[in-house]
Amino acid sequence: MVTVQLIDDCKKGKSKSLKKLYEAYAETMFKICLRYLKNTEDAEDILSQGFTKVLSNLSLFEYRDEKALRAWIKKIIVFECLMYLRKQHNFLMVSDEEAETIIYQDHHLSSLDNQYIFDEIAALPIGYRTVFNLYCIEGYKHFEIAEMLGIKEATSRSQLNKAKNILKDKLTKIQEKDERRRI
Hints:
By secondary structure, the chain is mostly helical. It has helices spanning 4-11, 15-36, 40-57, 66-88, 96-101, 114-122, 126-137, 142-149, 153-182.
């Protein structure tokens, strides 16, 4: 459990406390990195960079409770993932004109095995996966995603719609297979 004392000791640079803070959040934040970056090595690098930023900016953080600390760390980790992706990829997967014409649909995924969903999300093209993660998992709004990624809101909506359609198609195929097995 992370306490005010642990944070104070981290701010003083005590290595045991820094290690405890890292160990308290590393696994969860690594999973977040993997949601954005398919490659384990890239996720490890971004996790490391993210925690370097967390530790170097900890003096600016005012500890209220563990929930606020987790949210603050998560925001830094997600931002680091986005910066990495922005350097490596172009998020404009469709033209702005095409994005304006795509009808936005809000389908919901059925209850599935978590690992299956994680694997299917990880298999999405980078732009789709990033917008899907930001919108559906992190809870950002399209205007926020557009600002973070340097794209238009319509492009964010389009990327999300395409991601959901791909996931829906895969779900439909699995349901069809299950129905054929039953026959």
